[in-house]
Amino acid sequence: MLAHQRNTELAITGVLFYANERFMQVLEGEEEAVRALYELIKCDSRHHSVIAYADKSIVERSFGEWAMAFQPSSPWQAMELAGYLGPTDVAVEVASLSSSDKKLFDLLRSFTLP
Ligand SMILES: Cc1cc2nc3c(=O)[nH]c(=O)nc-3n(C[C@H](O)[C@H](O)[C@H](O)COP(=O)(O)O)c2cc1C
Questions:
Q1: Where do the structural domains in the chain lie, given as residue ranges?
Q2: What pTM value is reported for the model?
Q3: What is the pLDDT of residues 50-88, one digit of tens each?
Q4: Gap between the Cα atoms of 104 and 15, Å rounded
Q5: Which CATH number fits domain 3-112: 3.40.50.300, 3.40.50.620, 1.10.10.10, 3.30.70.100?
Q6: What mean pLDDT, rounded, does the chain reach?
Q7: Which residues sit with their C-beta closer than 6 Å to ligand 1?
């Protein structure tokens, strides 16, 4: 099953950045669904050293319209991986992020920038 299909079924939204062989991903959804997907992603042998930087409840989604928004620097490998892309359509400035989340988001995103 493609990632975006599963995400749609599980009502998971988020964003996925990829560059320099690193991913940064935000997963949003019901706690049980997010935890189950995170376990699945962690066990994916295509990558390693998975780190959770934040894990908390939220009042509303910041990427609610996206089954997995994708902001690539080099989209092709991740296109295969995620099966869902809207490379140029993602608003990197997300108004609904709190100021602390925005700092975290920018920091993590910087790891994937060229
Ligand atoms: C960086 C990264 C992000 C991923 N994100 C998702 C995701 O958001 N949703 C998803 O279903 N699978 C995602 N995957 C794929 C899962 O790890 C897993 O391979 C896939 O869900 C297994 O599905 P399948 O066995 O039906 O092919 C991601 C994998 C990687 C490496």
A1: 3-112
A2: 0.77
A3: 999 889 998 888 887 777 766 555 555 555 544 444 444
A4: 14
A5: 3.30.70.100
A6: 76
A7: 1, 3, 6-7, 16, 23, 25, 37, 40-41, 44, 46-47, 68, 81
Q: Whose CA is nearest to atom 3 of ligand 1?
A: 41
Atom of ligand 1 minimally distant from the CA of 5: 11
Q: How far is the C-alpha of 19 from the C-alpha of 78, rounded, in Å?
A: 9
d(CA 113, CA 20): 7
Q: Sort residue 89 into left (φ over 0), alpha (ψ -120 to 50) or beta.
A: alpha
